[in-house]
Amino acid sequence: AVREISAAEQDSLAAYGLENPSATVSISGTGGQTANLLIGSNTADGYYYLKLSDSDTVYTVDSQLVNSVSPSLYDLAEIEDIPAFDIGKLSSVQINDTTITVETKTQETINGFDNAQKETAWYCNGANVSGYSQISALTYSIPYLSFSGLAAWQPSSEELQSFGLQNPVKATFNYTQEDGTTESYTLWLGNAADET
Questions:
Q1: Which residues, including other chains, have CB under 8 Å from residue 93's CB and lie 6 or more apart?
Q2: Backbone torsions φ then ψ of 69, nearest 5 degrees
Q3: Where residue 56 falls among pLDDT bands split at 50, 70, 90?
Q4: Are 124 and 98 in contact (CB under 8 A)?
Q5: Going by C-beta distance under 8 Å and a sequence separation of 6 or more, which residues neighbour residue 102?
Q6: Distance separating alpha carbons of residues 115 and 109, to the nearest angstrom
Q7: Neighbours of 175 (CB within 10 A)
Q8: How far apart are CA 111 and CA 86, in angstroms?
Q9: How far apart are CA 57 and CA 50, in angstroms?
């Protein structure tokens, strides 16, 4: 606790938001002990009022404690993982109607020396596009793709529109797994997310 307010120095429980607490947290110990924490309103300096249900003492506690026991639905959601795969196992990327294929060749002899080296080239409509900066950015980014959070659960059409997902860019990654099976994964890409 940051501060302890004894019964003698307290205002009414309503002044602390504890007459009708915003949350009640029940805690059970391994020995069968139980306690109920009543969480009240927040203070001007960012703390919260808290008291045990069977005590007259009121405490102020850090907001981190309150936030950790009152998660939002989005905090509880299990976010899907984007499959991890070796960039060398990628066979093609389809972005909307454009397909970019990947060809990996092993060059056994280089300048007269036996040296197995893989050379990867990216092709779009038969043209080698390996030198394009967008391809470099794509090959760098693919292994690091991950979801950072949940923006909406069962979004409405208005939310999809605001996210830019009514007519998204669709990126499909086709790759080979370690066991030789081929897989694909499609991401719908919308607007840049707000960082707020």
A1: 99, 100, 102, 138, 171, 172, 173, 174
A2: -105, 0
A3: confident
A4: yes
A5: 90, 91, 92, 93, 120, 121, 122, 123
A6: 6
A7: 21
A8: 28
A9: 9
- Select from 135, 132, 133 the least CA-distant residue to 87: 135
pLDDT at 174 over 70: yes
Q: One-letter amino acid identity for 33?
A: Q
Residues 17-53: tens digit of each pLDDT: 888 988 888 888 888 888 888 888 888 888 899 899 8
Enter the tokens of residue 194: 């707000």
Residue 73: name the closest of 163, 147, 153, 146 by CA.
Answer: 153
The answer, as to whether pTM is greater than 0.70, is no
The pLDDT value given to residue 122: 87
Most confident of 10-14, 40-44, 65-69, 137-141: 40-44
Tokens of 89: 């196992």
DSSP 65: H
